[in-house]
Write a structure and sequence with these properties.
- The complex is a heterodimer.
- Helix content of chain A is about 70%, strand content about 0%.
- Chain A has a two-stranded antiparallel ribbon.
- By secondary structure, chain B is of the alpha+beta class.
- Chain B has a four-stranded mixed beta sheet. A two-stranded antiparallel ribbon of chain B has the order 2-3.
- The longest helix of chain B has 9 residues.
- The chains are: A mainly alpha, B alpha+beta.
- Chains A and B meet through β1, α4 and α11 of A and β2, β3, α2 and α3 of B.
Chain lengths: ~300, ~220
């Protein structure tokens, strides 16, 4: 039997804390709103919803960017993350460049839209950077090879799906303001496709990590059977995934349309499920024991 | 040139002198340690063995922290020492998370050793001699100021005390060895070769410059 002290946290599985505890919750919110906002902008631009684009832009720039800045130890040095040559290797630097370019190009496009003909090239460029903004968080986390739960190529894909899926929801929520209700059916259809894709990806992700070594297994078990399991099963699985899937399947089989109020409620639940899943992934990101206790002790 | 350290676990007595000397050398605030000593006990009474495992920044040849830093605040010198430019650090803590060895610390707020009683003389001197900024990440830098000053005088790190990290000098059991790992005749290189010293978690692919003699 091994009794270790006083730094037990380094000989057992150690959760990362910097990006989820205390001020770290700001990073969790920043990641969520940056991806959700960028996703909403991309989807809204495809469906021609200016209120949706504006909502996405504000979510990404004001909420996402704001939370990110507030988290920094030295927010006034923020410019270094964009203007230094850190982008050559750092995904955080790259991501903030993507976000900045998306915000600038997106704003210019929305302003021009009021007084001039739509500048397609500008919109495409804004969409490209918004798309990159959606996936960069996945790559930021994927880079951390000490945390197996994050160190998987599936994570950027999962976050991409979550970003677009959430974007579809935000676009649907803002459709009444555009008067383009005809697009609702198409967006709902795409939402169902992304919901199914998410279910497949989330299962593959957790199942894959589960068999990727002891630390990966410990991380997955912390999500599905540990302290955060109630959050995962309630918010992510039951309310955020199964309920929307059940309603979508039921109405599709019965050939009915979903009442508008229920659609809005389901979108809110999906977004809360998204937020909860991100919380679980950040909270249960475990490092392996620093000291190889078994071989060391033998 | 690649500075590195070898720690002989057979000699380490777990006295924490390295931890305390490091705190003193760099005037580190309370609760912050750049070097740590992990301890464990194996066996059952009366046959118990105590194990000591000093850890510090590994100054990896392929450091994950350098690649993670968005502002180039974390840099790797040509001699292999990985250090942080406090003036460039924005405090995003990505390096802290990216380091698989968890040897970095974030200095959030100024802390006094005796809260409410003002700074001690030690803390006042430290603020002048070795100012630490809040809101940045900090870590072991192999006492680069000693290494630089010593080599500037023509001294040899690992051989001459003035050019050698404080934790190596202070170790009463002489369990720590410092030197250029690229120098095949250096004491550290010889130990790695002859005692088959190992790196901590080589599977991370960072190629640490801190080695441990186990057997």
């Amino acid at each position: 039997m091994i009794q270790t002290r006083p730094y037990e946290f380094l000989v057992q599985y150690t959760p990362q804390r910097e990006w989820i505890e205390r001020r770290g919750t700001l990073m969790w919110l920043a990641m969520f709103f940056i991806e959700l906002g960028a996703g909403a902008f991309v989807v809204s631009s495809i469906f021609g919803s200016l209120p949706g684009m504006l909502t996405g832009w504000l979510m990404c720039g004001v909420l996402g960017g704001g939370f990110h800045l507030l988290y920094l130890g030295h927010p006034l040095r923020f410019w270094r993350m964009v203007l230094s040559s850190g982008w050559k290797t750092s995904w955080i630097s790259r991501g903030l460049i993507f976000v900045t370019l998306f915000l600038v190009l997106g704003l210019v496009h929305m302003i021009l839209l009021q007084w001039a003909a739509p500048a397609t090239g500008l919109l495409i460029a804004a969409d490209v950077f918004a798309f990159l903004a959606i996936i960069y968080v996945g790559f930021v986390m994927n880079y951390v090879n000490g945390i197996p739960l994050w160190n998987t190529p599936l994570l950027p894909v999962l976050y991409l799906i979550l970003g677009i899926w959430g974007g579809l929801g935000i676009t649907l929520l803002t459709l009444p303001a555009t008067g383009a209700a005809a697009a609702a059916a198409s967006i709902e259809e795409w939402s169902r496709i992304f919901l199914l894709t998410f279910i497949f990806l989330a299962f593959s992700y957790l199942f894959g990590i589960r068999y990727q070594g002891a630390t990966g297994k410990a991380s997955v078990m912390a999500i599905v059977a540990g302290k955060w399991a109630p959050l995962f099963w309630t918010m992510v699985v039951a309310l955020g995934t199964l309920l929307p899937a059940g309603v979508a399947l039921g109405t599709w089989v019965a050939g009915l349309s979903i009442p508008t109020a229920l659609v809005y409620a389901l979108i809110i639940l999906e977004l809360l499920g998204d937020l909860s899943l991100r919380y679980c992934i950040l909270r249960c990101g475990l490092y392996g024991p620093l000291i190889p206790a078994t071989s060391y002790a033998s | 040139m690649r500075y590195g350290m070898v720690i002989d676990l057979n000699k380490c007595v777990g006295c924490y002198a390295c931890v305390i000397k490091c705190k003193q050398e760099h005037f580190l605030p309370p609760t912050m340690e750049w070097g740590r000593v992990l301890m464990s006990e194996t066996g059952t009474y009366p046959n118990i063995t105590k194990h000591m495992y000093p850890v510090l920044c590994n100054h990896c040849e392929e450091p994950a922290c350098v690649g993670a830093c968005p502002t180039n605040a974390t840099q790797q010198r040509e001699d292999g020492i990985v250090h942080i430019d406090q003036n460039k650090c924005v405090g995003c803590r990505y390096c802290l998370i990216a380091c698989p060895y968890q040897v970095r610390s974030f200095y959030a707020h100024e802390k006094e050793y005796f809260p409410g009683q003002g700074l001690t003389e030690f803390e006042r001197i430290g603020a002048k001699l070795y100012p630490l900024q809040t809101g940045v990440v900090l870590k072991c830098d192999f006492c680069l100021e000693r290494v630089d000053e010593g080599t500037g005088k023509g001294l040899k790190p690992g051989v001459d005390i003035e050019a050698t990290p404080a934790c190596v000098n202070i170790c009463p059991a002489k369990a720590r060895f410092f030197g250029d790992l690229d120098d095949p005749d250096g004491e550290a290189s010889k130990l790695i070769r002859e005692k088959r010293a190992v790196q901590l978690h080589p599977e991370y692919g960072t190629d640490p410059s801190v080695y441990y003699v186990i057997g």
